Queue: 3 jobs
Job 1
Amino acid sequence: MLKIGCHVSSSNGYTSMIEDTKYIGGNVFQWFTRNPRGCQAKEINPIDFSNFLSLAKEYNFGPFLAHAPYTLNPCSSKEEVREFALDVFKKDMEILEKIPNSMYNFHPGSHVGQGKEIGIQMIIELLNNVIKEEQSTIILLETMAGKGSEVGSRFEELKMIIDGVKYNNHLGVCLDTCHVFDGEYDIVNHLDEVLDEFDRIIGLNRLKAIHLNDTKNPFGSHKDRHECIGKGYLGIDAISRIINHPKLKHLPFYLETPNELDGYKDEITLLKSKYIG
């Protein structure tokens, strides 16, 4: 079965995310635990949360992927920004530990001129302060497009972060198809080679999720602008190869394309028609 879903809003509560996912024909979803451009997390309604857990089990949904706010930057040059990242991480882990089969995805950050080596060490420091040996939530480093001073556009950078974390058995990677193509990994013409490189450097056992997005930008542009499925430089043929690849097809795919729910519904219908199973 194709594990597919999209980014859904949590503004109407956790149960609504299940309902929206059912509407679009999905069985997994991603959401923000708090305002993606700010820091406030909405207070959880205990009844709504209990209903969500019951429905998720009934429909066999998951895994669930929470996304950290975009403002989170653990390798900022400003101490207050790093402290904010640590605080958000800790609070979000408290929420996710209550949700079975959950993962937490974050952008590694931007070193803002300090250099990638310093940035990577700061990311490692945050993760070592957050990750507990007994936790169940898997934390995912997202592959980035390499714009500006972003850390994480090269597999080697993600590997350095993983190797520096004490309890790295709780770490994985979320591969964003738009980001890696923009970041000079040619998944259109050389998907097998890219996956071999990922396996050699990081290990495919670390790959836990895929952000399935087309891109508005040509190969190697380092711009990170998502496009609807089949309407960008990846194209539907390459995306079909991705969801059917024997090394990827078992993973959950999360759409982050520029769509509303009906658009996601159409994309999921299209992808299901291309899925061989």
Job 2
Amino acid sequence: MKRFFERLFKGTKEAFVEILKDHLLNEKRMFLITANPEAFMLGKSDPEMEKMLLDEEVTMAADAIGLVKGGKIVGIHLPERIPGVELAQSLLAYGHEYHKSIFLLGAKQEVIDALCAVIREKYPNLTICGAVNGYVGDKDAVFEDMKKVEPDIVLVALGMPAQEKLIYKHFRDFRKGIFVGVGGSFDVLSGMKQRAPEFFIKHNLEWFYRIASEPSRFKRFYNGNVKFLFALRKER
């Protein structure tokens, strides 16, 4: 798995946000994976995911303290985690500041509606050029429609790895745009769910708060994180 770690951005969140800003201002294209241990475990067993994680045209940031700690095991220093939800918030803010456009795909219709309302209120200069819930049948057709409007920001909330595989299939057909799979972030960005309290975020315990709040997450956490650390040590 060390080769996956080698592809991660190795700077701070502040430095990475500057890269996002540059891509927005200069209309560059980026497919960003906000990676976690689950992504790397999938990369070990899923050839399509492995290809994606190793693709030089794909950008990866460590959206989990497990990757920061795992990096130490394989000898790669990552200064901090770069939470995907915070990057999404930065994209909304800069999209508003620079009068850009956004396309939203994923989550339930009520979540999409709530997020659109938040964007119109808080980020009025950010144009919503498309908003489609995650239950639409033909998601490839959604990307075909997306090509016609050429959004500057594309947030896809379908869960990993479905969102990443869908973006990977289409992102090269676009001239510009920052494409990000954001998992459950629409719930937080829309205000439908609250993020963990500041104490948990500051002490890298957001994962613990999620499990405590939703015990059904434990199995996924075990498969994606505990097994990940065992696999890393075994590989070393």
Job 3
Amino acid sequence: MNIQEAIHQYSLFLSVEKGLLPKTVENYLTDLRLFFSSLPKINDTKELSRNHVYQYLEFMKRNNFAQKTIARRLSTLKNFYAFLEGEGFLEEGLPKIETPKGEKKLPSVLTKEEVERLLNAPDITTPLGLRDKAMLVLMYSTGIRVSELIALKLRHISWEERHLKIEGKGAKERIVPVTQDALFWVKKYINEARKDYSRKQNPYVFLSRFGKPLTRVYFFQEVKRYAREVNIPISISPHTLRHSFATHLLEGGASLRVVQTLLGHTKIETTELYTHLKSNTILQEYDRLMNENKVK
């Protein structure tokens, strides 16, 4: 893939799937542009190697860059390489490179009451509202990524066995169970709304009003709009539903391994992040209950 196109795809991933603020995304992209300015002859991702990162790291050390700057730029490159490898655009992955440890920011998670408000936000008397309702319910009940949601095809739904076949990162397939409620809304959308604006046969489940597959950016904007309509105070993205799904499963007693399998994480360390979220939620609930029961 062309380097400029790869950077563009990565910016979409950061803003839509990760839900980062525009300023934060731009900071990442600035770091990437500075890195590639040192590699003027590299035009395609298949030409990238881990040695380019090592050389850039040595360049920053030789020129006495601040440790904070080195750590941030190296973190940006590691995440960018991981993204390219996961998408199948990189020949040679990046091995583990130690960087100064900083505080890890935990992703936002909705309460169950906020999830319910969000899922009930679309106007299901309209075709597009019914579609959005089905998408929101399906995403929260399965924890799939927004990219997996919009790429879902009709043949990937097993109605009888109640599961989805998901084509995840790196062309890896996994089977994800789905609730009866989610299947109800998807079937209702297909039978009552999808046929109304799908002008020709299309393999994808969720379509625009013009009968074309949806984009990640479009769904990101819709989720933000619905969140504003129901007064959800935190800044959210479609990825917030995935975080909420995982956290609520753990709160309900699911094992870390089960959540890892459902989310499609290659490493258990990635899933372990949600144990911190779970502890955070318990502490917040404890504080709330103690405040409510204070002796006046």
